[in-house]
Design a protein that fits this description.
With 370 residues, the chain is of the alpha/beta class. It has helices at residues 2-10, 21-38, 53-68, 72-75, 94-101, 122-134, 157-167, 224-229, 262-271, 280-288, 309-325, 353-367, and strands at residues 46-50, 83-88, 109-112, 138-145, 170-175, 199-202, 215-219, 293-294, 302-306, 331-335, 338-345. It contains 12 helices and 11 strands. Homodimer.
Length: 370
């Protein structure tokens, strides 16, 4: 919070070093560190902070398309074949939104089937890629998910990377939710294979508890982000400045004005705020409240549950009463043949066991008379 307050007080911009010298250097250092944690330590990776995971995913797809078809910058989509990309059926909706924004079209986003725990099935991905080629479509990108929204599932990244390498496809990993696990000795194995990705979305404002907004798009190949987006505005990005103009990162971004999101992350990084205790709460719920049915297994700090078929019908009513009384808020949703199960996601480092007990007690109290 101190970082956010000081950032707002400074009210500066992030497009050039001369406007935000300290913050620009901080961003460069932390982006490099994040790339090293992913496993790109021996390469010259690149990245930038963006306004949220949806925009970071858009960057990943944008750069993937530019890498394959650099003529897109000048000639537009009419110069390209019918390109398609792949994402799991449990992937974030921002992938389709990016396809719509970029002119690719949502019909050209192919959803790959998942197993019963929400993980992409590699054999289905391979089948979809081959089918697309037979139809005359041109696959160019696969978006894997590391920490899905509903299940908290992690796609099998090594298997997906093998398929991407075989078919020469860009591999983007949406680790907006699960990226923070890379900092955990006990849980980082869930993201094994992320080092083989071409780009990664990582949101410190989610699992790491950094105040909104704080999201990074990381690109394994240095120079692509700038080549894809730069316009070289003469009033900002002069090449003959008195300092190293590599610190003028603004031309790598889609927008011109860019909020300072790095300072709060820098302070928290130095403070080493811990979040791994959050992963114990889904298991605590499963053991302590066995009247509730844990739907998808403990994959992450997501907890999806129901008590019985009748509860599915009244979940919206329970939530409505919670909001009206101002006691709590919990999400519900359908998924496949499941109707309106509760979905609880633990991401606040301040969460304690008594908070979990209180929420379950509220569900039982409000549901008793329905």
């Amino acid at each position: 919070l101190a970082g956010e307050w000081l950032t707002a007080t400074a009210n500066t911009n992030m497009f050039t070093y001369e406007i935000a010298p300290v913050f620009t250097v901080m961003e460069t250092i932390l982006l490099k560190k994040m790339c090293e944690i992913i496993g790109w330590g021996e390469t010259e990776a690149d990245g930038i902070f963006s306004p949220g995971g949806s925009i970071s995913n858009l960057y990943g797809i944008l750069v993937a398309r530019y890498k394959q078809y650099p003529e897109i910058r000048t000639k537009g989509m009419r110069a390209l074949p019918c390109i398609v990309l792949f994402v799991s059926e449990q992937g974030h909706y921002s992938v389709k939104k990016a396809a719509a924004i970029l002119g690719i079209g949502t019909d050209n986003v192919i959803e790959v089937k998942c197993d019963e725990r929400g993980k992409m099935i590699p054999a289905e991905l391979e089948k979809n890629v081959l089918q697309a080629k037979r139809k005359g479509q041109t696959p160019f990108c696969v978006t894997a998910t590391a920490g899905s929204t509903v299940f908290g599932a992690f796609d099998p990244l090594h298997n997906i990377a093998d398929i991407c390498e075989m078919h020469k496809l860009w591999m983007h990993v949406d680790a907006a939710w699960g990226g923070g696990l890379l900092l955990s000795r006990d849980h980082s194995y869930k993201l094994s294979g992320i080092e083989r990705a071409n780009s990664v979305t990582w949101n410190p404002h989610k699992l790491m508890g950094v105040p909104l907004q704080c999201s990074a798009i990381l690109i394994r190949e240095k120079g692509l982000l700038g080549a894809c987006n730069q316009m070289g505005a003469g009033y900002l990005f002069q090449p003959d400045k008195l300092y190293n103009v590599d610190f003028d990162t603004g031309d790598k971004a889609i927008q011109c004005g860019r909020h300072v999101d790095i300072f709060k992350l820098w302070l928290m990084w130095k403070a080493r705020v811990g979040i791994c205790h959050l992963f114990s709460y889904p298991m605590y719920l499963d053991i302590q409240y066995n009247k509730f049915h844990f739907l998808f297994g403990c994959l992450f700090s997501n907890y999806s549950f129901e008590r019985d078929q009748e509860l599915q019908k009244i979940a919206p009513k329970i939530k409505a009463q919670m909001i009206e009384e101002g006691t709590a808020m919990i999400s519900y949703q359908p998924c496949g043949d499941k109707v309106n199960f509760f979905r609880m996601v633990f991401s606040n480092p301040a969460t304690r066991q008594r908070d979990v007990d209180y929420l379950i007690d509220e569900i039982q109290r409000l549901g008793k008379d329905l």
